[in-house]
Each structure stands twice: as structure tokens, then as C-alpha cells.
Design brief:
Layout: E1 7-12, E2 22-27, H1 36-45, H2 47-59, E3 70-74, E4 82-87, H3 97-120, E5 125-128, H4 140-154, E6 161-166, H5 169-180
Parallel strand pairs: 1-6, 2-4, 2-5, 5-6
Antiparallel strand pairs: 3-4
The structure holds adenosine-5'-diphosphate.
Adenosine-5'-diphosphate binds next to helix 1.
Length: 183
């Protein structure tokens, strides 16, 4: 029997406008909010999101959520059931060889861990930002390829609606190219 293939779509816009089961946040390790997507999600999600983040810090992540890992909170006032917060790697252009592969693996881990948690929650739809491509300076072309490749490999039922929400035309273009490339 063939497995139903989750559909990957690209949306240009603000991730906080999405109506999905899970919105993924490109968080920082403190889990206390920040700029970019993180700031937008906390603003629109409201105090319930921050309250859950504080509880997670107190119970498990006082030293910070490690890079490549993900945790779940309520989505507060967002049009979603949950927010999955994941910490992308800060891109280090000087790394080569094994060290470069390791930082790429951390970025892939953000997408994989988010999908794993969403699957455990029974989510059918999920919206991702382009993790690490803002303040964390990951080049968009490579970030898009890594995101699309990882999500294609790791997506499982019950997820069937997977969206990348890109904030501007440049990001959208890179994701279009990555999606059009052979898997
Ligand atoms: P990181 O620290 O992981 O780099 P950022 O939030 O700085 O995270 O940026 C990640 C990506 O999200 C960037 O491509 C940025 O342009 C984009 N972005 C910023 N705000 C939003 C938003 N509200 N919705 C979707 N994407 C956003």
C-alpha cells in the first residue's frame, strides 16, 4: 500500500496569520522571546505562550533549550493549537568539513524534531518559518534546501498539510527553487 504523501506548500506572508494545528517558532534558547518570528509569535500568541515557556524553563531548560531541539506550548491567541519552539543554529561561515556538516545537521534536527512533536500531538497541519535565516544568518539558498530535503524525508502521517511561510520574495524564491529541485 502506498503511503499518502504530505503536501508541502509555500506561502508568502506572516506565519502568525496561519490557521494550522502547529505553528513552529524559530526561538532562541532562553525561550523568553526575541525579535523576528519569535517576537511576532509572542505578540500575537499573547501571555499564555510566554507563561508556558517560563514553565518549561523552570522545569527543564533553565540552562536554555539546546540548539536543534524543540518543545511544545499552547498557541494562546494564535489560530493554532500549539506552538513548537525550536532553536536553530547560528550560521558560522568559517566552518568546513565535519564541523560544517554538524551545523547543517543541527538545522535539519530543528525540522525533524518539530515534525516528530507535531506527529505526537496528532497534528494534521503545520507551518514552518525559514529557521535560522534571519538574525542567525543562515544563507537562504542553503537553508531552503536543507529545510525542504529534511521535511520531505521526515514528514509522516497524520501530517498532510505542511507549509513554509516565507516573509519576503527572496525567501519565497529560494524555497521555490528548493522545492522544484529533484528530491
Ligand atoms: P532566526 O533567529 O532563526 O534566524 P528570525 O526570526 O530572525 O530567526 O528569522 C527567520 C526567518 O523568518 C527570516 O527569513 C525572517 O525574514 C523570517 N520572518 C521574520 N518574521 C516573520 C514572520 N512574522 N512570519 C514569517 N517569517 C518571518
Amino acid at each position: 500500500m502506498t503511503q499518502p504523501v504530505p503536501t508541502i506548500t509555500l506561502v508568502r506572508g506572516d506565519i502568525t496569520d496561519q490557521h494550522v494545528d502547529v505553528i513552529v517558532n524559530a526561538a532562541n534558547s532562553t525561550l523568553l522571546g526575541g525579535g523576528g518570528v519569535d517576537g511576532a509569535i509572542h505578540r500575537r500568541g499573547g501571555p499564555a505562550v510566554l507563561a508556558d515557556c517560563r514553565k518549561l524553563r523552570a522545569s527543564h531548560y533553565g540552562g536554555g533549550l539546546p540548539t536543534g531541539r524543540a518543545v511544545v506550548t499552547t498557541a494562546g491567541d494564535l489560530h493554532a493549537q500549539y506552538v513548537v519552539h525550536t532553536v536553530g543554529p547560528v550560521h558560522q561561515p568559517q566552518l568546513t568539513g565535519e564541523a560544517d556538516r554538524a551545523q547543517t545537521e543541527l538545522l535539519a534536527s530543528c525540522y525533524r524534531e518539530s515534525l516528530r512533536l507535531a506527529g505526537e500531538l496528532g497534528a494534521r497541519s503545520i507551518a514552518f518559518p525559514a529557521i535560522s535565516t534571519g538574525v542567525y544568518r543562515w544563507p537562504l539558498s542553503d537553508g531552503a534546501r536543507s529545510a525542504v530535503r529534511t521535511v520531505r524525508e521526515a514528514a509522516r502521517e497524520p501530517l498532510f498539510d505542511i507549509r513554509f511561510v516565507l516573509f519576503d520574495d527572496a525567501a519565497l524564491g529560494h524555497f521555490e527553487q528548493a522545492l522544484a529541485a529533484a528530491p
